[in-house]
Amino acid sequence: MAMFVVFITTIVFVYGKASGYGLSYVGIGLIISGIMAFSSYYYSDKMILGMSGAKEIKKKDNPQLFRIVENLCIGAGIPLPKIYIIDDSAPNAFATGRDPKHSVVCVTSGILDKLSKVELEGVIAHELSHVRNYDIRLMGIVVILVGLVALLADFFMRSLWWGNGRDREDRNSSQGIFLLIGIVLAILSPLIATLIQLAVSRKREFLADASGALLTRYPEGLASALEKISKDKEPLEAANNATAHLYIANPFKGKIQGNWFSNLFNTHPPIEERIKILRSM
Known about the structure:
Layout lengths: L1 H18 L4 H29 L2 E2 L6 H14 L5 E5 L6 E7 L2 E7 H6 L2 H16 L2 H25 L5 H10 L1 H41 L2 H13 L28 H4 L7 H9 L2
């Protein structure tokens, strides 16, 4: 988060210097993004659930799932979240919302069919840990910050064409260095912001694994669940690039990660490493 603050502040400074108009146009961009951030904070969970095709269920629809969630919520000391199901045979799950009082746990029909009760408890404990640790809020904020960086980059590139010929001449003569740096940042900053987002997401997955194991007092349940999920090669059709980092495991199955560069863009830490850590507890 500190890296993001420094990164965005640097971008604003460089864009302002390079524009030749001071920081005024950046202020407009920040106001617009602030409105977007406010809306996303309160409605991001509804957007995510809508994109995923998830449907809310009641206790009578799946009593066993509700009992598992209820028991773990008592142990975690958090309110019962809303429970949603995605009708998809690929096993996966995620949590979303802005705090424990406004949270959602969502599972696929595939994970209910393919995991045992103990394994399902491990998965639900992992997702409730995301809720209890406020990861759902953190990742929502990070997504907004990534969007803000992309918005600022686009705003800057468009602003290069707003001024008249003399303005451009002034910028070229007096602020050429900042203009060059600004263009490079506008191209690279969305990529850098995405890498920071993915790094944060991977760290929170390790934390949720540990917290979930502590909640159930049985790390093998989650380890076995992750093993089954990783061996299942069916991709989750409801997932997309915007929501992939939310799931307990990468929903895009069958992708070969062959080198360190491609691993930078993984939404999750390697499942083998997660299983190894859980089984060493």
